[in-house]
Amino acid sequence: KQVERMGLRTQKMDANVFEKIGRFYFDCDGPEVTDGMNMLLFMEWLEKEDPALVKADDYVFPARLRMLISG
User: Fold this and answer.
1) Where do runs of H (alpha helix) occur along the chain?
2) pLDDT at residue 59 tops 80
3) What is the rounded distance in angstroms from the CA atom of residue 28 to the CA atom of residue 31?
4) Is 50 helix (H, G, I), strand (E, B) or coil?
5) Three-state DSSP class for residue 13
6) Sign of CA dihedral 11, 12, 13, 15
7) Which helix (H) or strand (E) segment is 10 a member of?
């Protein structure tokens, strides 16, 4: 729900994809979230699974920072 409140809109509005987006960008990027894919492959999979129509620009920096900190 929070990812939707942040302004993200996708083609299918798939709840499973939204959960993975929220966990990946703002919590952790472990294999339980990414299904064992590396970051780039996982982001490509997310876009293929449920293409984004609107992305919330306000959250790009915090998401990127979380990825940089996690390595």
Assistant:
1) 2-5, 15-26, 31-34, 39-49, 60-70
2) no
3) 9
4) coil
5) coil
6) negative
7) strand 9-10
* pTM (predicted TM-score): 0.79
Where is 54: in which H helix or E strand? strand 52-54
- Could you give the CA distance from residue 70 to residue 7 in angstroms, rounded to a whole number? 25
Whether residue 34 contacts residue 42, with contact meaning beta carbons closer than 8 Å, is answered with: yes
The gap from C-alpha 30 to its chain's centroid, in whole angstroms, comes to 13
pLDDT of residue 55: 81
What residue type is 16 in one-letter code?
A: N
CB atoms within 10 A of CB 10: 20
47 pLDDT band (50/70/90 cuts)? very high
